[in-house]
Design goal:
alpha+beta, Rossmann fold, Immunoglobulin-like, 5 domains, nine-stranded mixed sheet, seven-stranded mixed sheet, 21 helices, 49 strands, globular, disordered N terminus
Length: 924
């Protein structure tokens, strides 16, 4: 989870992105006009954006792509379908990648999941698709589908979520990224394709997940199912029997200014925590191969297809024909849709005359609104009516967006710096955060960039929560070409009945739970809750020949945003409690000789402008003591942050883990959770909510407190924090200061995880580190993922070959190969019990070969595999000791795993036991 001691210094600045408007809103037949992107890509604005919308208006095709993790997706295929063919797409990624490695920092588990969700939704902007997830978690690398399903509690949690998304989105085609076989590698990959096959038929069966039917969802039979990766990742050729459709994603698109796969790669590069920032793809042909494995189309067979849509009518007019015998309930529909299609085609052919295009699009919108109204009132059966209204509603949204682009009229809705709102104080001030009891003023404006006058009708604030009920205002104002429309809307956030902008899912124990609970089941498959506030303006163009339909058919939509003091001008609106209460750090490890107690720091942030007072207390385990028992707090302004210290005295020295909770009472309300802004310059932002808890792990460990340790951080981990908590003398050494650093001040130097991958100065000064060892020091090198670079660098004192071998089962038996070695004797006696209770995995990136000067110390293996002995190696070099460690201590120490902490202390002490015995800190 997000390490609270880093929370306030890890506020990245950010840019508002389109994806929340597009991907965090459930698609239903009741969908109204959604707010367009606040800051869309250049390709989504102007002429390219209009071309894209007109392309989308020409098809009703809907595609759903299924993967296991962020970065698994076939972005080239999605971009080709969405931006090349106008297909409406949804990417369903089963997990949020929370169990992976973070190549940008130390945040792991659920906080990493929030960051990767933001990264993936940034990628989705380029692909042009919506995003959905399931309630299963990435629990780390898995070598089989069987293990994956065992961790996920069987098939039904993920399958039920996939069925829900199918029944909601109603795709025509389901495309699994993977094959569902061992060739996929990762067990999660295999499981995602297996589940896609099951969901293809299960979504159409009302007896599967009947609770969804009771909620109002309808069964849905997708027409075709495809699977991928039968030809190998990135294959340019494929055996004919292994594919049905071959898509060239290397084709250029003039509106994108590049090929589909290259444009998708621009999006993928936002996934920096995956190391994607430098990924590229060369110009030229690139192919995606998929095999048709199931179809619900009657009498349809195909050895080879031109694309996914062979055998289906995906035209707008085809919506009438696909009703079959039910079309008699809507006899007007075929002609109405033909009329709408004709106007859209004429608009597309209107060339460089955006005003003519706008008139034609407005005429289409008027006709479409009339058709939607008649369909709603018709006797059409529920299932075909819901599907028809879903697709017609999508066309209405697209027409409104296309109209806005053709009219060159893009609205803005910005929270004014008035009323209860004060300007953001700094780049760390989450300006878009609003709290219950607050009033906000929203300045709504747009410029009519067309040559046509706009007759403004009603305008209002809208949102998914029932309290969003700002007074609707009417206007008879005509906005002339080249002039501005401006107005102000006021909204009071009530004290009760308000939903906070939490991440949709949570886990009680992120390090061990492999499935999530939902704060609100409505949002369980969404990346984030829907946007809190949008503004809508209804307008009409001057009368045309079209007499039918509403007079103010057009809708301009904008997300409501707030001015920011950071690197970006605005932030999305989020609802948060008036107080954020966080115990810092969120995990604390203490030795069982804990006298005189441990310090606990509570960080409190205030989000209202009016002064407030309160009482802050800690809830502690029975028989524990705390000083002081409570603190009186007082805040005077918005974004004010204060820290409060308590000292906690555990009741006994027994090894174990428990929790401390912070509770703040103010104004008759109780606050016991905190929130952190997770963001980055290239991403949107989201608040990561956590209960105000600190896990305290009491560990029986002997510590050589006089041992001086230098720690060079790699990609980022929290090992130094834990070592300092248990009383070890640890100093951080900046990698760029390594050339001038006097290493003789330290007995042991540790390279954090992926140091050679991320710190060029360390690689360049490896000789200096080996000289430190030769002079009598101990160097501990932890795993790196750049296998070829590490091996080519010859960083070890004797020949050794790094590999990608890993042991992913955290309960895998471990054999101590050299039990009499001092590493297992000093300062702590290490036994088999010290490998109990580990989390997520044993280790990763083991050595596969090594010189005889290296001594393997441990062996372990995943079920059905041979022993891996290259996870912990030591070698004497000169007067000192070199240790290579692939075991996942970076996960175990912050989790408070006692045996892992004892063994790590022993590794730090290796080679120095004769000098440290007199300075040994031991339990009572």
């Amino acid at each position: 989870m997000l390490r609270p001691n880093r929370r306030w210094r890890e506020f990245y600045r950010w840019m508002v992105v389109a994806v929340i408007a597009l991907a965090a809103h459930p698609v239903t037949s009741q969908d109204q006009g959604m707010a367009p992107p606040w800051k869309p890509l250049p390709q989504d604005n102007g002429a390219p954006g209009l071309h894209d919308m007109l392309r989308r208006l020409g098809t009703t095709a809907r595609l759903m792509h299924v993967t296991a993790h962020p970065d698994d997706e076939d972005g080239g295929m999605l971009t080709l379908e969405s931006r090349g063919k106008g297909t409406s797409g949804v990417l369903m990624t089963l997990t949020r990648g929370e169990g992976g490695q973070n190549k940008m920092g130390s945040n792991l588990f659920d906080a990493l999941g929030v960051l990767r969700t933001l990264e993936l939704t940034a990628s989705d902007r380029y692909y042009g698709v919506q995003q959905r997830f399931s309630r299963v978690a990435d629990f780390g690398y898995s070598k089989s589908a069987d293990e994956t399903f065992q961790k996920w509690g069987g098939h039904d949690i993920a399958l039920g979520d996939m069925v829900r998304v199918i029944r909601t989105f109603r795709p025509d085609v389901l495309v699994a990224r993977f094959s569902g076989t061992e060739r996929d590698g990762h067990g999660h990959h295999q499981a995602s394709s297996i589940l896609a096959r099951e969901a293809f038929r299960a979504a159409a069966d009302p007896n599967r997940f009947p609770e969804q039917i009771k909620e109002g969802l309808q069964p849905w039979q997708t027409k075709k199912l495809y699977i991928g990766l039968l030809c190998g990742f990135g294959a340019m050729t494929c055996a004919p029997e292994n594919y049905t459709v071959k898509l060239n994603t290397g084709r250029d698109n003039p509106d994108l200014g590049t090929s589909y796969i290259q444009f998708a790669m621009q999006g993928l590069r936002h996934q920096l925590s995956q190391g994607a920032g430098a990924w590229t793809v060369d110009p030229g042909d690139r192919f995606s191969f998929y095999k048709l494995v199931d179809s619900a189309l009657p009498n349809y067979q195909a050895d080879k297809e031109q694309d996914f849509w062979d055998g289906m009518d995906t035209t707008l007019s085809g919506l009438a024909a696909r009703l079959g015998s039910d079309e008699k309930a809507v006899p007007f529909l075929r002609d109405a849709l033909a009329d709408v299609s004709t106007k859209i085609q004429k608009a597309s052919a209107s060339g460089s005359d955006p005003n003519k295009c706008a008139r034609l699009l407005y005429g289409s919108l008027v006709k479409l609104e009339a058709a939607i109204a008649r369909v709603r009132q018709s006797a059409l059966a529920t299932l075909p009516k819901d599907d028809l209204l879903l697709r017609l509603g999508e066309k209405r949204n697209q027409l409104n967006r296309a109209l806005s682009l053709a009219l060159q009229t893009i609205p803005q809705a910005i929270v004014a710096e008035s009323g209860d709102r004060t300007p953001a104080n700094s780049g760390d001030d989450p300006a878009g955060a609003i709290s219950p009891g607050e009033q906000i003023d929203v300045d709504l404006s747009f410029r009519n960039g067309s040559r046509l006058p706009l007759d403004v009708g009603e305008y209002e604030l809208t949102g998914p929560q029932p309290w969003v009920r700002a007074e609707e205002k009417k206007s008879a104002k005509q906005v002339s070409p080249g002039t501005d429309f401006r107005t102000n809307l006021k909204l009071r956030i009530p004290q009760t009945g308000v939903e906070y902008s939490r991440q949709p899912l949570y886990r009680h124990d992120p390090e061990r739970d492999s499935t999530y609970q939902a704060y609100d089941p409505r949002y369980a498959t969404l990346p984030f809750p829907p946007p809190v506030l949008s503004a809508e303006v209804r307008y009409a163009l001057p009368p045309t020949d079209d007499k039918a339909g509403p007079q103010a058919a057009g809708r301009l939509n904008a997300l409501v945003v707030a001015p920011s003091a950071g690197n970006h001008s605005t932030e999305n609106i989020s609802v948060v409690p008036a107080f954020s209460v966080m115990l810092e750090p969120g995990e604390q490890v203490i030795r069982n000789d804990h006298d005189p107690g441990c310090n606990v720091k509570v960080g409190v942030t205030y989000n209202l402008s009016a002064p407030a007072k309160g009482i802050l207390r800690l809830k502690i385990p029975e028989k524990w003591r705390v000083q002081p028992e409570q603190r009186t707090i007082e805040f005077h302004q918005r974004s004010e942050k204060q820290e409060f210290q308590f000292t906690v005295f555990p009741a006994s020295s027994k090894e174990g883990s428990t929790h401390i909770e912070a509770v703040l009472e103010s104004g008759g309300r109780t606050y016991n959770e905190g929130y952190t802004l997770v963001t980055r310059e290239d991403l949107d932002s989201a608040f990561y909510f956590q209960p105000a808890l600190q896990r305290v792990s009491v560990v029986d460990v002997k510590v050589p407190s006089a041992l001086k340790i230098g720690y060079i951080m790699g990609a980022g981990d929290d090992i130094p924090t834990v070592l300092q908590q248990i009383g070890m003398n640890v100093s951080l050494i900046s990698a760029d200061k390594l050339p001038g650093e006097d290493l003789s001040r330290y007995q042991t130097i540790v390279l954090g995880i992926r140091t050679y991958d991320t710190q060029k100065d360390v690689a360049a000064n490896n000789k200096k580190l080996l000289e430190f060892v030769s002079a009598g020091g101990t160097l501990i090198v932890q795993y790196d993922t750049g296998v070829s670079d590490f091996n080519a660098g010859h960083f070890t004192p004797f020949p050794a070959q790094l590999s990608r071998a890993r042991v992913s089962v955290e309960e895998a038996p471990v054999e101590i190969l050299a039990p009499n070695d001092s590493i297992f004797q000093y300062p702590n006696q290490i036994t088999q019990k010290d490998f109990d209770g580990w989390v997520q995995e044993r280790g990763l990136y083991f050595m596969s070969q090594w010189d005889n000067n290296f001594v393997p110390l441990l062996a372990c293996h995943d079920p059905g595999e041979s022993d891996q002995k290259g996870g912990l190696l030591k070698a004497h070099y000169g007067k000192g000791l070199y240790i290579y460690n692939a075991y996942a201590f970076f996960r175990q120490l912050p989790a408070g795993v006692p045996g892992a902490i004892r063994l790590y202390v022993n590794l730090l002490s290796a080679g120095h036991q004769n000098n440290q015995r007199s300075a040994l800190a031991t339990p009572r």
